Amino acid sequence: KVLFHIEESAKWPLTLQNAKKPADYYDEKDDFQIEIVANSQAVPELIKALQTFSDEFAGPAERGVKIAACANALCNLSIEPERLHSFVRVVPVGAAELAEKQEKGYGYIKP
Fold first, then answer.
1. Please, what's the b/e burial string for 27-53 (b: 16 or more CB within 10 A of its CB; e: otherwise)?
2. What CA–CA distance (Å, rounded) separates 11 from 48?
3. Do the beta carbons of residue 57 and residue 43 sit within 8 Å?
4. pLDDT tens digits, one per residue of 19-28
5. Per-residue pLDDT, 53
6. Are the beta carbons of 34 and 64 closer than 8 angstroms?
7. CA–CA separation, 3 vs 79, rounded Å?
């Protein structure tokens, strides 16, 4: 179980690359759980992904990497959840999602 936390838009390429590596490794092994939680200024990139990073975002999602966006960040940035990719799950509070996943044994990584 691996949990990636991203809050800076400039760190998306690194975060996605880092998430792909365990997905590739665990693809041939036992069940794996990888989640990326985006909050703050990293959330708008999830909308831009349609034009710029589509393959980079969709690839990990198709491999089982879950991507979550903070509802508070969406509200603060005036972004409607409907504008996100269908594979992005909206969580009420990004910080709470991070804490809950760590309680469930996820390893925390912040690129």
1. eeeeeebbbbbbbbebbbbbbebeeeb
2. 14
3. no
4. 887 777 776 5
5. 54
6. yes
7. 24
- Say yes or no to pLDDT of 6 above 70: yes
Structure tokens at 15: 């975060």
Average pLDDT over the chain, rounded to whole? 85
Length of the chain: 111
DSSP alpha helix (H) spans, 1-111: 12-27, 45-48, 54-62, 71-76, 94-103
8 Å CB contact between 108 and 2: no
Helix axis angle for 12-27 and 54-62, nearest 10°, is 30
For residue range 69-85, what is the model confidence (pLDDT) as tens digits?
A: 999 999 999 999 998 88
